[in-house]
Amino acid sequence: MSTGRLAGKVAAVTGAASGIGLASARAFAAEGAGVACLDLDGAAAEVAAAGIVEAGGRAIAVACDVRDGEQVEAAMTQTAVRLGPPSVAMCNAAAFTPSHRIVDLAEADWQQALAVNLTGVFLSCKHAIPHMLAAGGGSIIITASQFARVAKAERGAYCTTKGALLQLAKVIALEHAEENIRANTLSPGGVATDRLAWQFGDLETAEREWGPAHPVGRLGRPEEIAKAAVYLASDESSFMTGADLLVDGGYAAR
Ligand SMILES: NC(=O)c1ccc[n+]([C@@H]2O[C@H](COP(=O)([O-])OP(=O)(O)OC[C@H]3O[C@@H](n4cnc5c(N)ncnc54)[C@H](O)[C@@H]3O)[C@@H](O)[C@H]2O)c1
User: Fold this and answer.
1) What is the enclosing helix (H) or strand (E) of 71?
2) What is d(CA 214, CA 254) in angstroms, rounded to the nearest whole number?
3) Which of 28, 122, 147, 158 is flagged as catalytic?
4) Quick check: 168 and 125 in contact, CB under 8 A?
5) CB atoms within 10 A of CB 105
6) Does the residue 91 lie in any domain?
7) Which of 64, 68, 156, 226 is the most buried (most CB within 10 A)?
8) Sheet holding 10-14, edge to edge
9) 128 part of a folded domain
10) What is the mean pLDDT of each run of 10 residues along the chain (254 residues)?
11) How many domains does the chain have?
């Protein structure tokens, strides 16, 4: 019998092969949940799951493109068959979008941001909910961003999709409150992951240039966001739904 704050739960995490998703998958497993690591990069998802198993946890890897409804449905079914019905879904995958003013943003980059960040989350929720109903309830955690609240020039597609996710979570919260399914967004500030390394060239540059934008004077670590994800996944947040949990080093307070 596993122990921990998530004992007996099964969590499906999208974008689990890297950064915040990986740290959250590890933290969920350390708290006793069985974890399905869903990622576009199937090989990296295998590495993520193997690392969790090596650390004594229960995990599987599922290659899955969240833009594709059939793949997402199959991944949730596979999770239910191999681990049990997911009662936690962390909808976390997002695309890398180049920084341009709207006037210069390629339509393909806009469409890609919508497909992964927004439709991907819709599909992940849509196909997780039936399993949550079977499990008697659940917690949906949608990774949004401080840029769901405050805007940043040249990040139009990203800010727009992240803002929309706050509304998506609220709608799901209303639709399923009576069925014991909660839905919240988790909004990190800048966190040292591959995403920022890609955006700034490398993580040192990201830390130097972007860290000071946060009143605490630094970027966050994926593990700091994972702690908040564990809280949202656990019954400790049982009265919290339709809310946004901001973990941003004070960024949006300015
Ligand atoms: N890092 C930050 O500064 C920061 C700040 C605020 C919000 N966020 C959000 O946190 C989440 C995780 O970001 P991260 O920084 O850990 O990113 P990351 O790039 O380290 O990890 C993202 C993962 O998503 C996967 N992925 C990409 N497209 C996919 C698809 N179509 N289907 C399935 N998987 C796909 C990638 O393979 C990768 O493993 C994202 O939603 C991001 O917008 C990040």
Assistant:
1) helix 69-82
2) 9
3) 158
4) yes
5) 18
6) yes
7) 64
8) 58-63, 34-39, 10-14, 88-91, 138-143, 181-188, 244-247
9) yes
10) 89 98 98 98 98 98 98 98 98 97 98 98 98 97 98 98 98 98 99 97 98 98 98 98 98 96
11) 1
CA of 158 from ligand 1 middle (Å) equals 12
**Dihedral sign computed on CA atoms, order 9, 125, 92, 80:** positive
CB 83 within 8 A of CB 72: no
Q: Is 22 in the pocket of ligand 1 (CB under 6 A)?
A: no
Burial 114-153 (b: 16+ CB within 10 A, else e): bbbbbbbbbbbbebbbebbeebeebbbbbbbbbbbbeeee
Q: What is the pLDDT of residue 128?
A: 98
31 close to 230: Cβ distance less than 8 angstroms: yes
pLDDT confidence of residue 42: 98
Q: Check if 57 has its Cβ closer than 6 Å to any atom of ligand 1.
A: no
Q: What is the pLDDT of residue 1?
A: 52
* Residue 3: per-residue pLDDT: 87
Q: Is residue 158 flagged as an active site residue?
A: yes
Q: Does the beta carbon of 145 sit less than 6 angstroms from any atom of ligand 1?
A: yes
pLDDT for 49: 98
Q: What is the CATH number of the domain that holds 36?
A: 3.40.50.720
In order, the DSSP letters of 83-141 are T---SEEEE--------B-GGG--HHHHHHHIIIIIIHHHHHHHHHHHHHHHHT-EEEE
- pTM of the entire predicted model: 0.98
Q: How many whole angstroms separate alpha carbon 55 and alpha carbon 49? A: 10
